[in-house]
Write a structure and sequence with these properties.
0% strand, 58% helix, 12 helices, 314 residues
Length: 314
């Protein structure tokens, strides 16, 4: 996943069930690699196929869940590891040319509800919710403190300290211990990248670009969106809710077909508006210029990161 997509996925889908997406488009003409990605993508240059990457990611997520369960057990609580659910938009493909192709969009929309590689998964009942529901108020408070830690896990600048993040933070530490690119050595760099993209989205040029896109959407009858990721998020959330509520028969619900139609119509309007304001090219120009400055200011750390990534993948 490219650096900007890694950030965007984390921001847009906070609180949404987003694991290994499988329905969005792949292939097509590759877009230019950005200045930051020249360094960060070295971590993904292992020669694995997309399927192998997905399987490795799923295994890693499940391993984290098992660490959380063991940690919660030590705290006196039950926690059932939840297997990854391959449902939703794959942000690896956010820049795919297909998402600008009218014919592709007319057939698939964003590729969320239906797509060339779509898998109709079901979401099992959350066994951990049943555990929480059986606790008293005081026990429930203690449960969540054990799971997510204290408010002190985030400092005044919003930087996360996993050592104060309960069992979720502990699982991150354990995971990072197996991955030198995510451990303490590069924590400051990873935090700097995240902060960079937060600030980038607040730059006047990006704010103005999003405003022009949003005005076009409103003119087309789709008011209330603030950036092109909002429509994707809307369809993602709606699909998650329908599949979760529908259980084993979720995909037989007529609401799924209505959501597919809604997705296609929304994606077509979105694509027209992105084209009308030259969104892709303008966003890329602003981002690349900002990334070049970031690279100049952090070149030594980025070079060290790339060297470590290439060494790990060799």
């Amino acid at each position: 996943m490219s650096s900007q997509n890694r950030f965007r996925a984390a921001v847009v889908l906070t609180g949404i069930l987003l694991l290994s997406g499988c329905t969005a488009p792949t292939g097509g003409e590759a877009r230019a690699v950005s200045p930051i990605d020249e360094y960060l993508l070295a971590a993904e240059g292992t020669g694995m196929s997309e399927q192998e990457r997905r399987e490795e990611g799923d295994a890693r997520l499940l391993a984290r869940e098992e660490v959380i369960a063991e940690c919660m057990k030590e705290q006196g609580f039950d926690y059932i590891p939840a297997p990854p659910t391959p449902l939703g938009f794959d942000f690896n493909t956010w820049g795919s040319p297909e998402l600008d192709d009218p014919a592709w969009i007319e057939r698939w929309g964003y590729g969320i509800v239906d797509g060339p590689d779509q898998v109709q998964v079901t979401i099992p009942e959350d066994s951990n919710q049943a555990i929480v529901d059986g606790l008293s108020d005081s026990e429930r408070t203690a449960y969540y403190e054990a799971l997510v830690g204290s408010v002190d896990a985030f400092d005044a600048d919003g930087v996360y300290d996993p050592s104060k993040g309960g069992c979720l933070g502990h699982a991150e530490i354990v995971d990072a211990a197996d991955d030198p690119l995510r451990g303490d050595r590069f924590r400051a760099l990873n935090d700097a990248v995240m902060a960079f993209y937060t600030e980038l989205n607040e730059q006047q040029d990006i704010v103005a670009l999003n405003a022009r896109w949003a005005a076009c959407m409103a003119d087309e009858g789709e008011d209330g969106f603030t950036s092109p990721l909002d429509p994707v998020s809307e369809i993602n959330v709606s699909l998650q809710e329908l599949v979760k509520a529908g259980g084993e028969t979720a995909w037989d619900d007529p609401e799924i077909e209505r959501l597919r139609e809604r997705e296609i119509a929304l994606a077509q309007i979105d694509a027209r508006c992105r084209e009308s304001v030259d969104y892709r090219a303008t966003e890329e120009e602003v981002r690349f210029e900002a990334e070049e400055r970031f690279v100049a200011d952090n070149r030594a750390d980025l070079e060290a990161y790339r060297a470590a990534a290439e060494g790990a993948g060799s």
